[in-house]
Amino acid sequence: MPYLRVPALVKVAEGQAAAELIFGQGVTVRAAAELLGMSATTCWRRAWWFMDRTLPLAYGRPLGPLPPQRGTSACPRGRPWIPTLDGQPPPAKRPRTVHRDGEDMPDVDALEPLDMVALMEAINAPYDDPEDLEGLDDV
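Request: output the structure for the sequence above.
Response:
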């Protein structure tokens, strides 16, 4: 059992109370946290966990497994994936191997190492056409 895991019944009770205050009565998260005796972050997480937990019921679906906690590494952003509501998980994304313009990306292992000396000489080489530099002093 992970360290400091809160029992699901406690999470449901705290989440329901937080959700009723925040979403039902329009109380701010900070005020709801003070009323419930918890930190603002915990109050926000409990309220959204309760909303995510009961969301399938709003669509006439069974509850399903406990959703991951929003704002944690298990669900860093957005609504968590709920199998009874969302169906099968999407296929894993494959890494892109083509640029947006349609050209294939070069094979990094096949590239020759840069000649840094030649690159620096090219950067520091004197400019052949002084007319290209006209007007730069006016800026």
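The chain has a mean pLDDT of 78.
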